[in-house]
Fold this protein.
Amino acid sequence: MTKTAKKIQMVDLKSQYEKIKIEVDAAIQNVLDNTAFINGPEVKSFQAELEQYLGVKHVIPCANGTDALQIAMMALDLKPGDEVITADFTYVATAEVIALLGLKPVLVDVVPNTFEIDVKAIEKAITPKTKAIVPVHLFGQCADMEAIMALAKKYNLYVIEDTAQAIGANFKYSDGRSKKAGTIGTIGCTSFFPSKNLGCYGDGGAIFTNDDTLAAKIRIIANHGQSVQYVHDSIGVNSRLDSIQAAVLRIKLRDLDTYAAARNKAANFYDQAFANHPKLKTPARAKFSDHVFHQYTLQLIGVDRNALREFLAGKEIPAMIYYPIPLHLQKAYLDPRYKAGDFPITEKLCDTVVSLPMHTELDEETLNYITDTVLEFFNK
């Protein structure tokens, strides 16, 4: 087992950039030459191209994924005290915006195989105060949107898809139809943080909807609440995607499906290397969704996770934990409704998951070194 010459990273943005450097540099220079830094032609072109890619009527670019979620909830006129259901096993931003707006986050458990929000748990959590569901398409595949939309219809609820980790994934309906992640619910939201599957070189985000009225409202909110300059129809925020980021995203969008294929190739390599290992559970693929592998996350069975990470670090292999603490046990979100043990699947995942390097530039030599090293840990 020979260590690769290239430094192993969780996400290798430099190698990815080097492949598109000529296009990216020219696009950035074009923005600098034109000096249309905010809402310039690149933003409008990216918006139109992403609408076409997703098959959605409206894409509204914004400053980041957290803003996207906040603006979406503001556009739905959710009021303080309204309950919004989301997963306990997710990044904090999902619940953060709910709390920031004075809404009440209602947390539910996830299913153990795909890590996605548990639809049965959603229904049990619905009360007369429930106004919306925020399913998180975690690690690169969709939650069960067909079942979630049926619940939303039954109880007259909004659905805000958190698509930050699964842009490009296809949800597959039972009747054979498919739609892109983020285009199924009332509103979809995504992040273009650099490490995302479609990432820019700074901060960025976007909001998706097929509803013309909602789209108009979202645009107004994202622009200080104004539809005409200096005429403010509602309370808004200042959230814009700048032209340089849009220029980068236009180039990377053309390769998004190729990037997903590269991630799947790496995931398949990991799967094969760890198949049937008694101490490792490889990530499950949902029958109703493609997987675009934002993360490749193993569940450890009776393994000292810290010892494994230390062993890998000693061999210069990074490994991350997404996520080490459930939302309901985070100090900022402690709530008398919840206590340790209330979300057993999430709590077990937080104790047992570990994510290996996953990006578009993983070659076979690197994958061999990573998998051989992981297996060496169990044989030492």
About this structure: The CA atoms of residues 114 and 265 lie 19 Å apart. The mean pLDDT is 96. The chain is about 40% helix and 15% strand.
